[in-house]
Amino acid sequence: MNAVKKIEFENLPQDFSPHTLPEILKLAKKVKGDDALIYERSNKPFFMETDRLIIRRFTVEDAEAVCELSNDRMSSSMRNFDHQWPTDMEGCKNAAAYFAVEDIYYAVCLKQSMKLIGFIAYNSVNDEGILDLGHVWHTVYQDNSLDTEALSLMTQYAFEKLGVNGVTAGNPLESEEQIAPLKTLGMEITEIRESASFVNDEHGNPIEFTGCKMLITREKWEAKNPESYSPKNKPEILNRMENANADFEKQAKIVPAVSTIPQAERNTVRIIELPACKMVTSGPANGEDAFALEGALMRFLNWFTEFDKQRADMFYLRNFMWSPPTGGFQWGYAVSEIPKDTGGLDVIDFPGGLYAVAISVDADGADHDRVYNGILEWVEKSGCFVLDETNERRSLGNITSPAYIKDIMGYEQMDLYFPVKIKDGDSE
Q: Which distant-in-sequence residues (6+ apart) come within 8 Å of 352 by Cβ?
């Protein structure tokens, strides 16, 4: 079986409900041999299928399977060499819910039984374009075949569609079963880290081990897999950048398409225009430490909370959160001019533009998915708008209700913003 797959790409159906497993399973087809099927949403993989495996986004229904995977992990040789996963059902429910709302975590399942046997994460991409790839595998299925197949497909997608320059992974040097599939992919050890530690013993002393960093570059991947199409085609990201000016010119000449929004649904979604501006931003924040007290998001929260008190106009919120192309979270605050003191935070150019907006219940995964799909369906039905999400224009969110209202209603309200543009009637 070839390491590289012949991939068929499809966009996720607009009316798809991503939080239920029965709906997810409807995406499966009869993929055989060295073929693979990948459904995408917002330029990210949502569902992958090979002859033997299904790789998909998590749902809240995965709690029991996450618990089984976690308890297997915590009784294996890896138990002291990684972040500690919860082993109780309540903790695993929270973990599954967290995985489900993030677009960087993937459940690996046996195709025949849909049993969850592994976890893969697109953790982050650094300034050099190197993607950090993480994986957790059930020891019963750690055979350097199924794990290699899953990791290979995720690596292939990263090179061919995300356009990364390399893929790296960190693991214990002595855990041969953990690093064996990575070696099969062509990764090589580039760094040894002595005295690494994630866990303390019963006396509070760190349990140390020798870690290693492994890497495969784009050049080595292409040389190892000449049948891969990435050497012959530019990454989609580069194509979008090269076409940006042409798209801008075309936008000015658009003849709007006729609206087909049903009368009963005209006010279910709002269309607003956000101005282009500067934004002070937290920068991308990934993983379990994204909301840590000393993390990037909390540092940003502390800065903008104080800075926001200086505003005379309090009619509209200026802070927005989004998921950057590398995954995780990023938080930004719109400013009319760059503050003298940004607290060491970065400043970016926010492109603005049109957004389709609807309200959801914050921290409620099912309601988030309902509103998420509702906006997508509304845009599709509108006849006069199309989605316009790019690396620069991301889907946004911000909490619109005052903090004290949560004590009254029991929840907070969050607006979800999807970038859209006017549909060109001449393209029909």
A: 273, 274, 275, 276, 277
Q: Cα 112 from chain centroid? A: 27
Q: How many CB atoms lie within 10 A of CB 28?
A: 14
Rounded to an integer, what is the distance from CA 180 to the centroid of its chain?
26
Percent of the chain with pLDDT over 90: 42
DSSP state of 60: G
- 217's enclosing H/E stretch is strand 206-217
Left, alpha or beta for 300 (phi > 0: left; psi -120 to 50: alpha)?
Answer: alpha
Residue 1 corresponds to which tokens in the numbers above? 């079986």
CA dist 325 and 104 (Å) reads 10
DSSP string, 301-319: HHHHHHHHTT-S--SS--E
Go through the domains of the chain in sequence order and give each one's CATH number: 6-238 (3.40.630.30), 239-427 (3.20.80.10)
H helices, E strands: number in the chain = 11, 19
Kindly state the greatest CA–CA separation across the chain.
71
Q: With the C-alpha atoms ordered 21, 23, 376, 8, is the resulting torsion angle positive or negative? A: positive
At 366 the three-state DSSP class reads helix
Burial of 240 (0-12, 13-18, 19+ CB in 10 A): middle
Tell me how far apart the alpha carbons of residues 289 and 428 are, in angstroms, rounded to a whole number: 47
Chain position carrying tokens 């800075």: 307
Is it the case that residue 237 has pLDDT exceeding 50?
no
Question: Which ranges of 136-243 does DSSP label H, i.e. alpha helix?
Answer: 146-160, 176-185, 218-224, 236-242
Strand partners, 109: 54, 116
2, pLDDT greater than 60: no
pLDDT single digits (tens) 7-20: 888 877 655 655 56
